[in-house]
Write a structure and sequence with these properties.
Elements (H helix, E strand, L loop, with lengths): L1 H25 L4 H6 L3 H12 L3 H11 L7 H13 L3 H12 L6 H17 L3 H14 L4 H15 L2 H10 L3 H6 L6 H19 L3 H14 L4 H13 L3 H9 L1 H4 L8 H10 L3 H14 L3 H15 L1 H14 L3 H11 L6 H17 L3 E3 L5 E2 L15 E3 L7
Antiparallel strand pairs: 1-2, 1-3
Length: 399
């Protein structure tokens, strides 16, 4: 990364020199004087920035030696952005603040500098300052409106101000799509659906049930595959004792994304039990397992069969599925079911211990975007910050 940053700075230096040379030639000045006219302090400041030494002095030298105008604006912004990416938010801020102190820039160019400075403030943790700059651009109807709104969405997300994040995100989606309620899936629509769920959870704590239900519907409007909305709705139905309604909502998750049915299959089995319909759950689980063998679903199916048909039928069911697609969790359950038929209990104990160790070592969830893995389901990936990308691990060492 450091080598890449050095390359970019060197490329910038060459580009600036070329631009200055071109500018001088347009004024009918010979090529040699044009190159010589570039201040020595400009090269010295670039050298300091490249070496990452005396950054404050280097920034001051750069600001003093390199004129700000329409031709050099992009270079100033790019160099400030590079400093921000290197972690020097102070240097980036000074370069971008210097642009706003100039009176020879057009409104659009000033707005470019506002965007860059807002990003500096945001990275430095000065979210209020960043928000004020971006709000001003939104109110003015700047041509950089969408860029400002995207940055605001990120700030509101950081501040956990979910309603403002929803409102800003909604403005980035064409009105005709909002009216049709058939939004194409995108990172933004998925994120907004999770903002709705986050806000719904807050309203649940305050027992604002109407607002909660409206937000859960909105989540599905933004992303019909938002399993989180159905999970919350199912949980609320169970708490209210509406088990049939919970079954209807939770079973929809199998159509949205079958992997997440693992997260609610215990609740589904409970709802069928409370509805005196264990046979209904067996039919649902068998239908699901014909499409994909998921260990959590299989474990609940085995328990249901045991309660209705006995231990032998339950063991035979588990053995059949483990032959088709073995998993560590399923094998552990199978070992336990055969325990009563084996004389050498110590060997079974050792086998179970080794299998448990393998399961404990493996992650249960993984982000499909960046590969982050862990034991807990995160709706927003802790690593890449993407929403809805973390899913249960499937395979012999997972579900």
């Amino acid at each position: 990364m450091q080598d890449f940053a050095t390359f970019i700075l060197l490329l910038s230096a060459v580009s600036i020199g070329w631009l200055l040379g071109r500018y001088r030639r347009s004024k009918k000045v010979s090529l040699l004087p044009a190159v010589n006219a570039i201040p020595t302090s400009y090269y010295q400041s670039l050298n300091l920035l490249i070496s990452n030494d005396d950054s404050n002095d280097a920034v001051e030298s750069f600001i003093e030696s390199f004129e700000v105008n329409s031709s050099t604006l992009a270079t100033h912004i790019s160099l400030g952005n590079l400093l921000r990416e290197r972690g020097d938010t102070e240097g980036a801020t000074r370069i971008h603040q210097n642009l706003l102190a100039r009176t020879n820039l057009s409104i659009a160019e000033q707005h470019q500098a506002h965007i860059a400075l807002a990003k500096d403030y945001a990275q430095a943790g000065l979210l209020d300052r960043a928000e004020s700059l971006l709000d001003a651009l939104v109110e003015e109807g700047s041509e950089y409106l969408n860029t400002a709104l995207k940055e605001l969405v990120g700030i509101y997300q950081e501040q956990r101000d979910w309603q403002l994040a929803i409102d800003a995100g909604r403005r980035l989606i064409p009105k005709r799509l909002l009216r049709s309620k058939r939004l194409p899936s995108s990172a933004l629509s998925v994120a907004i659906s999770h903002y709705c769920c986050e806000l719904a959870e807050q309203h649940i704590l305050a027992e604002n049930w109407r607002e909660t239900r409206a937000l859960l519907r909105q989540a599905l409007d933004f992303d019909p595959k938002c399993v989180r909305s159905n999970m919350i709705s199912g949980r609320l139905s169970i708490e209210a004792g509406h088990y049939r309604q919970a079954i209807k909502v939770l079973e929809q998750i199998a159509e949205q994304d079958p992997l997440y049915i693992n997260e609610v299959v215990d609740s589904l089995a409970y709802c069928y039990q409370q509805s005196n319909d264990i046979s209904g759950f067996i039919r649902f689980a068998e239908r699901l397992l014909r499409q994909q063998v998921l260990t959590s679903v299989l474990m609940q199916l085995v328990l249901a069969i045991r309660s209705q048909q006995g231990e032998d039928q339950a063991r035979e069911c588990l053995l059949t599925y483990m032959k088709r697609r073995p998993t560590l969790l399923g094998i552990i359950a199978l070992v336990e079911m055969y325990r009563g038929q084996v004389n050498d209990q110590s060997s079974l104990d050792l086998l179970t211990e080794m299998l448990d160790a393998l399961v404990a070592r493996n992650p249960l969830y993984r982000c499909g975007d960046c590969g982050f893995a862990g034991k807990q389901l995160h709706w927003q990936c802790p690593s890449c910050k993407a929403w809805g990308g973390v899913a249960p691990v499937i395979g012999i060492d997972g579900q």
